[in-house]
Amino acid sequence: MSLFKKLFSSEKKESLDKGLEKSKTSFFNKLSKAVVGKSRVDDEVLDELEEVLVTSDVGVETTLKVISRIEERVSRDKYVGTEELDRILREEIAGLLAETHTGNATEFELPDSKKPYVIMVVGVNGVGKTTTIGKMAYQFEKQGKKVVLGAADTFRAAAIDQLQIWADRVGVPLIKQKMGSDPASVAYDSLSAAVAQDADVVLIDTAGRLHNKVNLMNELSKIKRVMQKVLPDAPHEVLLVLDGSTGQNAFEQARQFTKATEVTSLAVTKLDGTAKGGVVIGISDQFRIPVKYIGVGEGIEDLQVFNKFEFVDSFFSATS
User: Fold this and answer.
1) How sure is the predictor about 6, in pLDDT bands with cuts at 50, 70 and 90?
2) Is the separation of the CB atoms in 303 and 295 below 8 Å?
3) pTM of the prediction?
4) Spatial separation of the C-alpha atoms in residues 223 and 110, rounded to whole Å
5) N or C: which end of the chain has fewer CB within 10 A?
6) Which of 139-148, 202-211, 223-232 has the lowest mean pLDDT?
7) Residues near 253 by Cβ (< 8 Å), separated by ≥ 6?
């Protein structure tokens, strides 16, 4: 149990467990059917396990890696009982996630070396991008950080209005222009205001359109270039928000955005409403980009810092 020692508060762990309940129940229902009547992990069980992982939205490539790791253990240990499968799965998937996630953060953190720290948030419309920004702002503000929001999604009036609601709710300033304005101009104003106000962090919302990848690439590149006129190393982080409930579609969104811009971190939302929580494992592994945040509920506290040990412990703890 040392690998899975409790790092979260009991409230956060309870929220995580509840948020992953549908994914966990679905997974273990499939797994129990796969091993029924079997006492040892053999080729037939591994074939069944492969199907369970794929249908749990872990993804084919990542599933094959997991199966390969388990095959090595079975070969090495000679005999592995099916009752040990839960523990082995936890250990091997934690090991896989550790290749992308080197830290063990449990709280919202900002590097001391960058001020203001600039996070450009990307993702298609409807994934929970604006809500994620609002919840991040709340967490940073709660820590006493000075936060500035930038409404650079100027193609939808609703996006600006939604961000204003969050800014008012959290009590932080929002830099905005009218709908249809140049997004790069809003980003420039946001960083200028953040510097003038000695802010700790700037969260820049961007338009979420994938209908033309070339336009998206050009727009995001322009926003970056204009921000660098204020802060030469901005943005310090590009956070891609994905809707976990879309399963394999989230993989495609990740593929498109990583081609359009350099994505450095991920947030996977809406995990509480779906049985597709395995997508977190697959996306993290396949794109070699760390998942930084996960959304496990609608409450303002339900955006959590992703911790690989706590996630795996919640996902692969057998239901009672």
Assistant:
1) very low
2) yes
3) 0.91
4) 22
5) C
6) 202-211
7) 123, 124, 127, 210, 240, 242, 246
CB 150 within 8 A of CB 192: no
Report which of residues 13 and 121 the model is more confident about: 121
**Helix or strand holding residue 233 (H, E):** none
Could you give phi then psi for residue 198, rounded to 5 degrees? 55, 45
Q: What does the pLDDT look like over 50-76, one tens digit per residue? A: 999 998 899 999 999 999 999 998 888
228: Cβ contacts below 8 Å, ≥ 6 apart: 234
Q: What does the chain come to in residues?
A: 320
Question: Which conformational region is residue 57 in: left (phi greater than 0), alpha (psi within -120 to 50 degrees), or beta?
Answer: left
Q: Give the side-chain half-sphere CA count within 13 A for 35.
A: 20
Token output for 2 = 């040392």
The structure tokens 């080729």 sit at: 43
**What would the DSSP string read from start to end of 30-95?**
HHHHHHTT--B--HHHHHHHHHHHHHTT--HHHHHHHHHHHHHHHHHHS--BGGGHHHHHHHHHHH
Q: Which residues are annotated as a binding site for GTP?
A: 123-130, 205-209, 269-272
Domains of the chain: 12-98 (1.20.120.140), 117-306 (3.40.50.300)
